Amino acid sequence: MTRPLVPAVAALIVALSPVPVAAQPAEPDDSGTGGFDYPRGGEGPEGSEVAFTFQDPRIAESSGLAPSGLHEGVWWTHNDSGDFLPDVYAVNGDGETLATVSLAVELRDWEAVTVTEDPEGRSSVYVGDIGDNYGGSWPSVRVLRFAEPDPLADALIEPQVFTLTYADGGRDAEAMMIDPRDGRLYVVSKEFSGGLYAAPETLDPEAENVLERVDSAPLFATDAAFHPDGTRYAIRTYWGVTVYDSTDGVPGTSLGSFDLPESDQGEAIAFTPDGTALMAGTEGAAAPVWSVPLADEYLSEDPAETPEESASAEDGADAGGEAAGDREGGALPFILGGAGVAALLIAGIVLLARRG
């Protein structure tokens, strides 16, 4: 559960500073996570619409969302920390609960869910018990895994538990994703200087799995997800989302950012199974889940495309690169403006201190 003060403080920071606070990537370059076009929130791209609304009153703080790997039109979700049972819900395209899977573990601070094949090739649900409202005080966090039920039915399951620690010390996180190409798990910390962390190539249930920082991340990331083919991934915040090209691996390069539809406390993101849109959820009773279409520049390339389509895609990529260059070049006024705001704030503080 996110403390109410955090969104308010975050909103104030965003309002005061045109340029977001971003961490330095492990290998500094201009293509890492974050960027000057950091989203502020709004109406979302044209065509955004509410796909469904959760009908189950037990789903009051949906903090993660993932499409089923076995059942068409089914989505998995769960509640955040609080006075909730350790349940994961399968809902249909109308927001109706089809099955409730109760996990025989403690619900500490569940923040994310993803569905992908496990090492045995079974479609499995991974729940990220990775939140820490005490700023990284937990010595470790956990990921819970269970095979996706087929057929869908209520069940009590004892999941496999993986323990994770951070190489650079504990921290709060709400975003988790798994690359469908190799099964590698990633966590995105939720901080001013957020980071993208990679787990070992294979998770070991008998040992501590160390998360290594591989890049910076947007301010206050609340969820993340991979495209079904792994060539794209998205990191969302309360206000918007950034999409990355991971064709050549993670961290890849940023393709840009855009606003998501305004919500009370946006904490869930997922690609649709066809990879053409994002599904964006929020906490709250009877909360809506938005379908947000992806513009062409964010779409994954079709591996079966014709030569003509390939040439067209390359032209689009060149145009996208030029657009990105334009955005970066046009960021200088915002940087100077941010510096000016900071100078005024510092001057005001000094003046008040002298008067005191």
Report the sheet with the most strands, covering strand number, pairing sense and barrel closure: 8 strands, mixed
Low-confidence blocks of residues: 2-40, 303-356
**Beta strands, count:** 21
What is the general shape?
globular
Strand order of the largest sheet: 6-7-8-10-14-13-12-11
> How do the helices and strands follow one another from N- to C-terminus?
HEEEEEEEEEEEEEEEEEEEEEHH
Terminal CA distance reads: 39 Å
**Which value, in Å, is the CA radius of gyration?**
20 Å
Number of helices: 3
Helix content: 10-25%
Strand percentage lies at 35-45%
The overall average pLDDT, rounded, is: 81
Q: Give me the secondary-structure category.
A: alpha+beta
Task: Describe what this molecule looks like in 3D.
It is a single chain. The protein is an alpha+beta fold and 356 residues long. Helix content is 17%, strand content 35%. The strands form four sheets. It has an eight-stranded mixed β-sheet, with no helix packed on it. Strands 2-3-4-5-9 form a five-stranded mixed β-sheet, with no helix packed on it. β19 and β20 form a beta hairpin. The longest helix is centred in the last third of the chain and has 24 residues. The radius of gyration is 20 Å and the shape is globular. The two termini are 39 Å apart. The N terminus and C terminus are likely disordered.
